[in-house]
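[Meeting: bench + compute handoff]

Bench side (C.D.) handed over the final construct sequence. Compute side (W.E.) agreed to return the predicted structure before the next meeting so the bench team could plan truncations. Sequence as handed over:
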Amino acid sequence: MRELPEIEVIRRELERELAGRIIKSVDAQVPASVTRKQTKKAFAEQLEGVKVESVTRRALLLLLSLDDERILVVRLGNTGTFRKAASADTAGVTFTFTQGTPLYLVDLGKDAEVFVVAADELDAALPELATFGFDPLDQPMTWPRFSDLVSRRHEPMKRLLLDSTFMCGLGDVYVDEILFEAGIRHDRKCDSLSSQEVRRLYRSLIEVLHDAVKHRGAHIGEHGIRDLLGKPGEHQEHLQVHGREGKLSPRSRTPIKKTKYDGHLTFYCDTQV
């Protein structure tokens, strides 16, 4: 699963690449369900001749704002990404522009989606937006507010950090890393944390996610994050515990452990309490 840092890396690249460019043509080689049951022709006609003004993000959704008050919504899912070069059998959607090189949306998985919606109809088209919690990369909250929200919850820490209604966009990789950096176990109850532990958790959350973006995301698995030129992200080289079962913890020099907790594979070390 792509998590928040990976989608933010792609967003920043698209913003640099596309802002101000005019779409010349669109060739969609994907099932109609990917474009919300529109025909390829209808989907393409909505985009031809419009200018991309900006690229923003809501949780794991990419939003390309167009100059006709509409938005091109892209949900990459588990395998989708953008490339400046692609072969005919991998290009799901090809965008050409009046200037510059084409851009390809490739490796579309079953949960990928791309469609156009009027800006004032975005919330109605995507009702899940109303349920999202705070975005730690886009809308970081103050430490006192974060502390108040955590202390009011009684569930285990990993369940809270994976809860998109509390905080959006995180999965097992970064939750394991955040909890390790904070020295807190995955099964520790939220309301049992001391003020100092919550402060440490807040600092770890911000540092881990910003470091991941700095390293251009974690390239994990066959469809790991790559930039527009196909270069893989590097943050997997900086992971402390996730995916490192049996290797020595950088904190205690004892083997990192793996368990299945609450339906999720979880990596941790004995120093987490």
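W.E. noted at the follow-up: The beta strands are 23-28, 52-58, 61-66, 70-75, 81-83, 91-97, 103-106, 113-118, 257-261, 264-268. C.D. will use this when planning the next construct.
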